[in-house]
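Q: My labmate handed me this sequence with no annotations at all. I'd like to see what the chain might look like in three dimensions before we decide whether it's worth expressing. Could you predict it?
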Amino acid sequence: MASHESALKAHRQALKRRARNRVHRSRLRSKVKSLRAAIRSGRTEAAQGALRETLSLVDRSVKHGVLHRNAAARTKSRLSRAVALLAATSRG
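A: Here is what I predict for the chain of 92 residues:
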């Protein structure tokens, strides 16, 4: 265990950040999971609505430092492509 005041403070801060990051990460994973479920079920309108919310949450996760910007870009690209494909196949 840390013994210096600065090390104790750093430990407290790390615990707070970890808790905050877990909340953000959990929320993001749940949102992505629900979007993927909407895509699998073939509900185009629901998937497009969920996509907007999910992309917003991904961007906020980057801003908070929970997700790396390249990982976020990759996730956004894959989800957007899946919804676009769903919309294209449901039209014709």
